[in-house]
Amino acid sequence: MADRRARKEQDKLKSKLAKFHDKNASVKSRFRSLMAYLDKASSEDLQKFFNDHFYVIYGVFLDQFSAYESACKRNKHDQSTVMSLLQVLHNVLKYLQEYVRKGWQIRSIANVLEKALYIENKQAVRKFAFELLLAFLEQVYSREEAQLDLLGASIDLTPLTVDYRDKVILPVQALQAPDRTSILVPSGTSVPTVEDTVQLFEIMLHHISDNPAHFDFWFRSLKEYYLNVFYPQVANGDQKVGFRPYAPALIQEVFIPHLDRWMRNPDLSKVLWGDADNRALLLEIYCQSCHLEVQFDKTIKKSIILFRMVFVESPPQEITDSVTEYRQLFLQKLPTIFSAKTPLDSVSTHVSLCLEVLQVFKYMFAEAYETLSPDTQEVLLYTLLNTSTELLAPSSPNQILSEALAAVCIDTILFIWIRTKSEKPDHWQALQDGMAGLFHSMEIIETLKVKVVQLTLVICNKIYPIKWKEKKQKKTGGLQQTAKAQRTLGSPDSVPAPKLPAPDPAITMMQWNVDEILYVWNNMLSIFSKVNQIKDPKIHKVAINVLTEIIDIVSDAEVAVPFVETLEENRPKPLYLVNVFGPWLFEACNLPDTYVEGKAEAYRALCRMFCRHHQRPLPLDLLGRFYAALHSGITTPSQGSAVQYAILESANNIFNLSLSGASVLIPYFLDGIRRVLSLGKAPLQVQRKAVLILGSLLCYSNHYRGLDIPVRLDSKLATELTKQKQMKYDAITPELVSILLLTMRRDGLHPELQQRCLWLSCVMIFEELANKPDAETVCELIKTQIKFCTSSNTAVARAALDALSSLTTMSAELLQVNEALPALIVESLCTNIIRELTERRKAGSGSSGPGSASFNEQTVAEHFHCLCAMLMTFSAAALQKPSTLTHVFQAVELGVLGQRLGAGEAPASARSENPTKVAKTKRKSFRPSSATEKQSSQPDVLLRVDQMFDLLTKKPAHESEAVQAAAEVLLHSISHFMSQVPGKEGIQLLHSDITEEDDVPDDERLAPLHFLVNSTTILSLVEVSRPGSGERVSRVILRNLTGLYSWENRLVFDPQGHPDPLPFNFEPAVEPGVDASDAIVPAPPAVVDADDAEPVLPTLEAAVAGRLGKQAGENVDQLGALLTYLSLAWKDCLPESGRSLNQPAAPLEEFAEGVKQTRDALTRQATEDSNVIAERTRERPDSEFWMFRPPGSPTPQSHYHLCRQWLSHLGLLDQERHASVVLLDSKKAARSIATLDRTHGRETAKVGVIYVAKGQDDQMDILGNDSHCRRGLYAEFLRGLGWPIDLLTHPGYVGGLDNSERLTCGETAPYFAAAGFELVFHESAGIPTDLVNDAQLIATKRHVGNDSVHIVYSEHVRDYDCQTIVSEFNDAHIVVYPLESGLFRVQISRKNDVELFGPVMHGMALSKKLLAPLARLTAFIANKYVRLNMQGYQHPFLKRREVIQQMGHRFALSQFYEEFLPQIIQPPAYQPQESSGSRVTPSSPKGSAITTSPRDDISSSGAASTTSSSFSTTTSPVSASSSSSL
Asked: Please, are residues 1204 and 1465 in contact by the beta-carbon 8 Å criterion?
């Protein structure tokens, strides 16, 4: 089937040739038949067909061509016919190659092609004919000259000459038709277009590229007929012929890509570079390509890449001898690209092209610089430098390109110079000279900064390497990153770290040694040697800022190196920054006023270099130059405020570092600070630093009292303070006070500055009180502080109130200055409270709540806390006037209830029914009404005390729970502790440690009685036997908001202690000689309990005489007398039976039977004797018969008889009191009571104290310090923080330290307590370390690392890094540095969410006398401010109140009165709780309450009240230390 179809197709093809083979047919018919066959036949068929009929085919072709020429003469043209003819000719050249090579019909073919190539023909015809010409010439072996000339005349180059200004002479004219009749297909245009010419030239290039076998012939032909015309500069012919000076751009655009293709072929490359003429031509091609216009960017890039490959990457073997010359030519021609014109629409194109050129330079330096000859290296360096400087110069004609390439050019130049590591001074001098003229662009400065910073990073790694950096980052990096993400530590001195660029591997990964990097870095920095010649002030400021940033980077790197590593001998010497940057910065300080901003930056940089720790003292001549510059900057008005601001902002540490001679600047700084703070126009940072400088001078007057400061007469301050050339240090304090008061009274003062001034004034008061106080100054400062107590800013008001509270630390000194000051403060606080709460009440519902602008509840609450501190300290001095006490209780009343009671209608809360459903009766008001109230027509509303307590549970009228809570704290504090602190047991223990289980034997232990009284107090009752006497007493344990208190109660019938009278005797006394047995024996005297009368210890002789009935001095039994004396004088020596020591003891068991028999015999004998005597006296009655004896005391049948009796005597069992006295479920309440006992009654705080020795900056080294560090100034400082406590026996707060017998935290710890708080210091050096079992020092870090506040005493020469102790806490740091001057510099840092605290502020230089007290006070206030950020933090009083109220709701037994009393008479058995707050030690007598605090968090607040409960009952407070005397 397939064969049949194939035969059928062959038959069809043969049928198409029928006309072709018919010789009688017309030429046209035969040609059509031929074309029909050519279109359908396959290549194999055509090859056979042409070989069999080549003669006939070519004959028909020529006949048809002749016929077409005849038609053209008749002006008949057909392009399709011409194209068909050329197609036949194409097949002839394709299938008859062997014939053509032998010369068959070559002239005829050339003639046809020539006519088709006439420039008048259409481009399509010429294009096809030119392709056939190229194929024809390639097939002919022996080419005639005319045929080759046909190649040169085929492309008309005339259209390319249009754009040339000078006439272009062409060596060959293009083929032109002799007349119009010879034109085969007219094009319609007189000459070909530029596109037509370029298209034909590109066809020739494609043909050459596609036929590399004949490349030698074709390139020679191309060069001869065309390239010599396009590049006549290298031709050997007529120098006037060709395109000059440059080849047509379009020709280069199509030629260079093909040239690139040829050069990448090794065989073709040999042809190209094998001839000298060819090499010259290729160099000219490259040179002219660099002069192309910007729009030919692709061609230019292609040429650059091509010749970079040839000259640099892989030079051909043929040019090895001349490669250096070629490379230099290559480099020298590249800059011409920068000088090309930049059309507005091609800016980005030109920029991209220039970037390619710069990349070539970078490549050559990075990859081939070492292979270049020295001369080529010179060319490379200077070519790039000169090109860039010309392009970027202010006079550059191409400013658009200059602005676009400034950064890249400078980056490339600097990169190349850095990579060279050149040791030739000429190279660096050329760079510095060239760059000096480019400081007119901000972008150039920024680019230069980036490179210098990269070098600085390298030099920091080389000169300041950190060996353990990777280990430390691996160990602590995660935790530090977490902590920083949340909150960061900072201080006023904290300078934001410069934003360093990412390390450039091209620089940082280079092989550097210290000498190389130092040399390169110094030479790069020398570019700034002419920085002060910059004409633009703004650019000058940026350039100086670059120097400042480099200084900061190097300084930070220097500090980051562990101090131990800096001592290594083989370590590179650190950079002396003053020598490197000092000359330029000092020069900048002397510039005209137009450079004021740059001068300010120079002053900042100088201050940062000088005003910091230096391992070696700075030379005095250098310090003198620095001081002179500061003097000029701060005193010269023409310098401008920016310079003064910069000095104050950056030199705030100048007076707290003990710099030699810095005191000479004090007058000038004070003068500048006065101007800055009085005007208030300076930035906040500047004013903040000005206040810090004032703080650093606080102690100077007293520390250097009597010494002089040299002052120039041109200083305004000098003329004000003294008319001499010198001023006294004594004059500093008055000036400080004047500036401070002036600032605090200024309107619009920033809240932060208000806080800082308040704390500064507080320390100033301390300084005055600690030395020779000036009463007027102290009073004025305190009055100024009082004015800020009502500030609308809560933080400012809190600072003012805390500053006033801090004065309680110096209470004795303050009273010596003016006894009226405490009363003034108390009156002011009360007035503020009353005014605020009264206005709040008047506002009523119109206010927006407790947080409204008109009512700041936090400020009012802080008033109560401050008032509490003042009253607890200055109660005697503050309350001398009755009116003051009245104001205090008016403020308390308004704070607790929100209103004044006693007149008018009772509040709704007072009229509300009690949950117990017990009716309330009206009684007398709890306070007397004033005269005005008595005259009121409104009747008094009489409230019972229990109703008043009920009001405490209601929402106050001012609707602020914070104010009510603060007022309650004040009320309970003054009622419990005022004038009673410290108590009998000392300041560390204000409450009792005795609980219900103490002194009660296990077999007698019953459930105690727990009552909730007035919803505020837990009243617990238990009966115990007094150790030694066995007397039963009622023990009352009170738990309220302030703490736990224990009392013991027993009935006292005769408070005078008189003996009972003797009974009346009816018989006379026995006369002499009368038998004594007949006399009436009087009743013995009443025995008075030793505890009821004042105990008087008898002497030994008196005791013996009284005991044996003998006079003193008689002979007595000495042993018996001694035992008698001991029995009377020391009752705690008596045995449990209570027998006297001289009485016989109970017999031993082995002798008991014999003693019993003896006793029975004696008893029988006594009985018989009594019978005999009775018989003899039977006749008269016995005298005892007539004597009446009073009845004895009955034995109580109930275990709670005395407790019930005490409750009854106090009236707490009355039915009407049943509503305010609620019985609690003892079993259920036991656990909550234990929780209550663990709740502190005072505020507690724990502060870490860290000692840093010289050379220590690692966490492990610092925490590894032991108790041997407690010496010298540090030991004195530690003793000033608090007194040492014995952790094993300390009954108060221990801050989590181990107080068990193991004492893993040491035996002692610094401790401080006051009426309102307890403070425990976790001293790291005092906690024992065990490096064998605890290599990470977890035991020490467990305490110090979890403290919110750290006090660091550092003897290191460097500033302490607050991130040293890695922890999520450590919110605030107080770092102390001892100075050579005898003062102590203090550095404060805090996390960003911690409010500014005081009184010690950052940068202060304190005296030894004030350091420890102020550090302790600042630590406590810092801890308080940290707690402000804690969610749900409450005062201990409020926590205890919450627990008590919860117990009332959960465990109250809601019973009727008749059900209540039986619970009192016989309560259920008691199950002791394991969580009891006390324990009985084995060494104590059975049942004795020897108590300790088993946990560090057991409440340690409160004080025992001494008020007797009734006239018929005596009560005595019981504490841990007095329990043995029970």
From this structure: yes
**Do the beta carbons of residue 1099 and residue 1113 sit within 8 Å?**
no
CA atoms of 786 and 797, how far apart (whole Å): 9
Residues 6+ apart with CB under 8 A from 1049: 1033, 1034, 1035, 1036, 1202, 1206, 1509, 1513, 1514, 1515
Distances (CA, A) of 1060 to 1053, 1088, 1190: 11, 9, 11
Residues 6+ apart with CB under 8 A from 1138: 1028, 1029, 1030
The pLDDT tens digits of the residues spanning 659-714 come to 888 999 999 999 999 999 998 889 999 999 999 999 999 999 999 988 888 775 45
> If you compute the radius of gyration of the chain from its CA atoms, what whole number of angstroms results?
56
What are the two backbone dihedrals, phi and then psi, of residue 1030, each rounded to the nearest 5 degrees? 75, 5
pTM for the full predicted model: 0.73
* pLDDT on residue 1044: 86
Q: Are strands 1317-1323 and 1349-1354 parallel, antiparallel or unpaired?
A: unpaired
Q: What is the residue-wise DSSP string for 572-627?
A: PPPP-HHHHHHHHHHHHHTS-GGGHHHHHHHHHHHHHHHSS--SSPPPHHHHHHHH
Reference 89, options 68, 117, 108; nearest CA is 108
> Per-residue confidence at 143, pLDDT binned at 50, 70, 90?
confident
Q: How far is CA 1188 from the centre of its chain?
A: 90
DSSP 336: G
* pLDDT tens-digit readout, 522-568: 999 999 988 999 999 999 999 999 999 999 888 888 888 887 777 77
Structure tokens at 1065: 């005797």
Task: Report the phi/psi class of residue 1015: left, alpha or beta, with left for phi > 0 and alpha for psi in -120 to 50.
Answer: left
Average pLDDT score over residue span 361-375: 85
1196 against 421, higher pLDDT:
421
Looking at per-residue confidence, does 1159 or 1116 come out higher?
1159
φ, ψ (nearest 5 deg) of residue 1033: -135, 160
Distance (Å, rounded) from C-alpha 698 to C-alpha 1180? 102
Name the burial class of residue 1101, with classes exposed (0-12), middle (13-18) and buried (19+) by CB atoms within 10 angstroms of its CB: middle
Q: At what angle do helices 596-610 and 620-635 cross, to 10 degrees?
A: 140
Amino acid at 933: E
- In angstroms, the Cα distances linking 276 to 220, 234, 322 are 13, 11, 11
- State both tokens at 1106: 């009284």
% residues pLDDT > 70 (the chain): 79
Q: Quick count: other Cβ atoms within 10 Å of Cβ 647? A: 28
pLDDT tens digits, 144-189: 788 888 888 899 989 988 888 888 888 888 888 888 888 899 887 7
Return the amino acid letter for 557: A
Contact indicator for 918, 1219 with CB cutoff of 8 Å: yes
Q: Which helix (H) or strand (E) holds 81?
A: helix 79-95
> Phi and psi of 76, rounded to 5°?
-115, 120
Cβ–Cβ < 8 Å for 1526, 1026: yes
DSSP 174: P
Best CA proximity match to 1104, nearest among 1081, 1083, 1128: 1128
